[in-house]
Write a structure and sequence with these properties.
Layout lengths: L1 H36 L12 H12 L5 E6 L4 E4 L12 H7 L4 E7 L3 E12 L2 E11 L1 H51 L14 H50 L5 H33 L6 E5 H18 L3 E6 L4 E5 H17 L6 E9 L2 E8 L21 H7 L5 H11 L3 E7 L3 E9 L2 H4 L1
Helix pairs in contact: 1-4, 4-5, 5-6, 6-10, 7-8, 8-10
Bound molecules: adenosine-5'-diphosphate (ADP) and magnesium ion (MG).
Length: about 450
């Protein structure tokens, strides 16, 4: 479209320029002639002297590149450079107008001669118009030049158009090729091939897109691996107590005469395995809830001290059983916005662990203090401690330092992972320091800043 408009505009302006130039040129020549022709007018009768006129015109008419006619005021041709239509009445629009005093030029497209310009200029003698200088020139050469320009323009346009087309196709391909690769990769991802990668360099949008895609791909396969591991772990955890139950039940069935005491003993074991199953399933359900409730924490202004006191009260019988003393160190009441129930659960898991993994006669100390904009709860025990190499995994789902020992104490390995999840949801942090056979300290920090919560 732009090319077409440019073409038309350029063609038009060139044509106008050429023609205006010709017009001006021939009007000037006609004017000069008109001044000359006046010299051949008899002063007495105010008529052209034919002889003088002829002489004068012979001298100059060949200088003009066209046909020159001198017309008298009766519209008769009194001179014709082609010597053809002498003394014939000539009637053109231009001559009419010129006899009324106008200098005029017009272009016609004549069937026999092609583009032709008629130029007419009056011959004034004092206050009268005695005749007209009339020039008729062919503009064919002008139009040939203009057409040459037109053809050149057209040619350039076509070449430009072709070039643009080729370049556009090339760039379209350059852009669409990587998009196609990405689309293919995404389709594979959708079909389940999660570790699909695209290799595309460059810092442009496509490069960024492919890096984002690769990142997503890695993340997806990581999540998928976590999911598989989780399912495997869950199945394993559920399988172990089930196998025990099965084994206990089968051995009872196999023996024909069993004492009531043995029955009781086996049933007690079966019962405790069922409790363990229940505990695992509760923890799992809890975890699923937490995953779903992420953004649904029920924040309330809460005394952290009060929560800790309640936990200690409820766990006291267990601690008393093992002769473990629990101490709370607190200097001030600390109030922060938390989800009461969830924080209770998180701290309960940690304090319960402290009791569980501390031998008889041990001691548990709980510090509650303020540290900048954080409420800090430290749970220190004099228990088994956690080996260095296990510390990084302690908060992972199902991780237990010593499965055999933990079996006796019960538990699923989910407690710390749930606590970690709850505290992270509160934008807090949980850390552990531990020395084998000396004890462990769990440090929980919860933000005190209300703005952070809402
Ligand atoms: N206070 C602690 N002292 C020593 N070991 C601990 C303590 N707390 C947690 N652990 C270790 O971390 C593991 C994971 O804890 P947790 O997720 O609560 O699982 P569970 O208590 O059900 O085994 C425990 O099995 C135990 O080995
Ligand atoms: Mg636990």
């Amino acid at each position: 479209m732009a090319l077409l408009i440019i073409n038309i505009a350029v063609y038009d302006s060139i044509k106008n320029n050429y023609i205006v130039e010709k017009e001006v040129n021939y009007l000037t020549q006609a004017n000069i002639l008109s001044n000359r022709v006046r010299l051949s007018i008899d002063e007495a009768n105010r008529e052209f002297n034919q002889l003088q006129l002829n002489q004068m015109m012979e001298e100059v008419s060949h200088l003009i590149n066209g046909r020159v006619l001198i017309i008298d005021d009766d519209k008769n041709a009194i001179y014709d450079s082609f010597n053809d239509i002498m003394n014939t009445a000539i009637n053109t629009f231009e001559i009419d107008r010129s006899l009324k005093g106008e200098s005029i030029a017009n272009i016609y497209n004549l069937t026999n001669y092609g583009a032709t310009m008629y130029v007419a200029v009056p011959v004034n003698y004092f206050d009268r118009i005695l005749g007209v200088v009339f020039i008729s020139v062919s503009l064919e050469d002008v139009f040939i030049s203009i057409n040459r320009v037109k053809n050149l323009l057209f040619f350039i346009s076509i070449v430009t158009l072709l070039l643009i087309t080729v370049i556009s196709l090339f760039f379209a391909n350059v852009i669409s090729h990587p998009i196609k690769i990405l689309t293919d990769a995404m389709q594979k991802t959708a079909q389940g091939k999660l570790n699909e990668r695209v290799e595309m360099e460059g810092n442009d949008e496509i490069g960024q897109l492919s890096r984002a895609y690769n990142f997503m791909s890695t993340k997806l396969s990581h999540i998928e691996k976590q999911r598989r591991d989780f399912v495997a772990n869950v199945s394993h955890e559920l399988k172990t107590p089930l196998s025990s139950i099965k084994l206990l039940a089968e051995s009872l069935i196999m023996q024909s005469k069993v004492e009531v005491g043995i029955y009781r003993e086996f049933l007690i074991d079966i019962n405790s395995e069922i409790d363990r199953l229940n505990e695992i399933i509760d923890s799992l359900l809890n975890m699923v809830d937490l995953d779903e409730e992420k953004l649904n924490l029920n924040y309330e202004l809460t005394h952290i001290n009060h929560i800790v006191e309640r936990i200690v009260t409820s766990i006291k019988p267990l601690a008393d059983n093992k002769d473990i003393r629990i101490l709370i160190n607190q200097w001030e009441k600390i109030q922060i916005y938390v989800d009461k129930g969830k924080i209770y659960q998180a701290l309960m898991n940690i304090i319960h662990n402290a009791v569980k993994y501390t031998d008889n006669g041990g001691r548990i100390t709980i510090h509650i203090e303020r540290e900048g904009k954080f409420a800090v709860i430290k749970v220190r025990d004099t228990g088994h401690g956690i080996p260095m190499e296990s510390l990084p995994f302690i908060f992972e789902r199902f991780y237990r330092v010593d499965s055999a020992r933990s079996r006796k104490t019960g538990g699923s390995g989910l407690g710390l992972s749930i606590s970690h999840q709850i505290i992270t949801l509160h934008q807090g942090s949980i850390e552990v320091e531990s020395q084998l056979n000396i004890g462990s300290t769990f440090i929980i920090k919860l933000p005190n800043d209300i703005n952070q919560q809402f």
